[in-house]
Design brief:
By secondary structure, the protein is of the alpha+beta class. The chain has a single domain, classed as Subtilisin inhibitor-like (Subtilisin Inhibitor). Helices cover 30% and strands 25% of the residues. It has three helices and four strands, in the order αββαββα. The chain has a four-stranded antiparallel beta sheet with strand order 2-1-3-4. The relative contact order is 0.20.
Length: 130
């Protein structure tokens, strides 16, 4: 549990650092800074991972360009993302994703639970693939 708290603190610190640099230039306040989290319930200790996605500059998301394009095509709405039609099993192992921060300057805070990680990746593509 303490590892999860440390991960959240590290991700939030990154987001706050980004927000601090954005305030210096209010005219450019249309940037994206999103904290993305994934909580797996099918593994021991409910594995948790998190990252920061910034579309306008580098970050630690391994598939930043594709993740930003996927979000843009769905107007940053998790429910509007389309499945890539991959075949997934019917094993129920819930995965909860959360996206919060700013998308093109607008506040975002969304949570969605998928029946398993395959379905989650089919619907969200590169966004939560980190």
């Amino acid at each position: 549990m303490s590892g999860r708290i440390l991960a959240i603190v590290a991700v939030l610190a990154s987001l706050l650092a980004f927000a601090g640099t954005s305030q210096a230039a209010p005219a450019q306040h249309r940037d994206t800074a999103l904290v993305l989290t994934v909580q797996y319930s099918d593994v021991e200790d409910n594995a948790f991972k998190a990252t920061v996605l910034t579309c306008e500059r580098g970050d630690n998301h391994p598939r930043r360009a594709l993740a930003c394009a996927t979000l843009a095509s769905a107007a940053a709405d998790l429910r509007a993302m389309r499945s890539d039609d991959r075949a997934c099993t019917f094993i129920y192992a819930p995965v909860e994703v959360r996206m919060f921060g700013f998308w093109r300057g607008e506040p975002v805070d969304q949570v969605h639970t998928y029946p398993n990680s395959c379905v989650m990746l089919a619907h969200t593509g590169a966004v939560f693939d980190f």
